[in-house]
Amino acid sequence: MSASARPVILYIATSADGFIARPDGDTSWLHAPELEIEGEDYGYYKMYERIDSVLMGRKTMDIVDGFDVPYPYPDKQGYVFSRSAHPPREEFEWVQEDVVEWVRRMKNEPGKAMWLVGGAELFRQLDAVGLVDEIVWTVVPVKLGEGIALFEGDPLADHYTLQDTQTYPNGVKIYSYTLS
């Protein structure tokens, strides 16, 4: 990454067995009362201040739409990647371009960091070509047994360097990595 390039940050949570969601996309397990610590945001707001845009795949956007709440990132430029055309949305821009080429181009545009919200397929495409600069991976002490896996094979291979770990009293662990 050049000194002027905008970083891509994957800030994401998985179950202890590596799933970002149940097979049907359900993520309600992330909000279990036993995982809540009063006043703790697990670094979310610090990360959110660093970004000016969010990137996500269409499947992730479908899950967000299913929450039946307003679009959660109204103060950030949103980009949703899809292989097919969709009606325009006020909250974000649909992107039908090649993901890798689009992100390469955007990394050289002026701006702050970009948050790769999800999902797994989008992460894998960008990770395969070294376009994810930072990973903040929260591991939640819940075992799902099946679902949508974040990683395939070796989770972080050898191209990321562990920078920090944090462990919380409720068993949540956060691992922070940077691209080597």
Average pLDDT rating: 92
> What is the CA-CA span between the terminal residues?
10 Å
The string of secondary-structure elements, in order, is EEHEHEEHEHEEEE
Q: Proportion of β residues?
A: 25-35%
Radius of gyration: 16 Å
Number of strands: 10
Low-confidence stretches: none
Main sheet properties: 8 strands, mixed
Percent range of helical residues: 10-25%
Number of helices: 4
Silhouette: globular
Structural class by helix and strand composition: alpha/beta
State the strand order across the main sheet: 5-4-3-6-1-7-10-9
Structure description:
The protein has an 8-stranded mixed β-sheet. Strands 2-8 form a two-stranded antiparallel ribbon. The chain is 19% helix and 31% strand. The protein is built from 4 helices and 10 strands, in the order ββαβαββαβαββββ. The chain is α/β, with parallel strands linked by helices and 180 residues long. The mean pLDDT is 92. Strand 3, helix 2 (58-66) and strand 4 form a beta-alpha-beta unit.
Short description:
With about 180 residues, the chain is α/β, with parallel strands linked by helices. About 20% of the residues lie in helices and about 30% in strands.
Secondary structure blueprint with pairings:
Blueprint: E1 8-15, E2 19-21, H1 44-50, E3 51-57, H2 58-66, E4 77-81, E5 93-95, H3 99-107, E6 113-118, H4 120-128, E7 134-140, E8 148-149, E9 160-167, E10 173-179
Parallel strand pairs: 1-6, 1-7, 3-4, 3-6, 4-5
Antiparallel strand pairs: 2-8, 7-10, 9-10
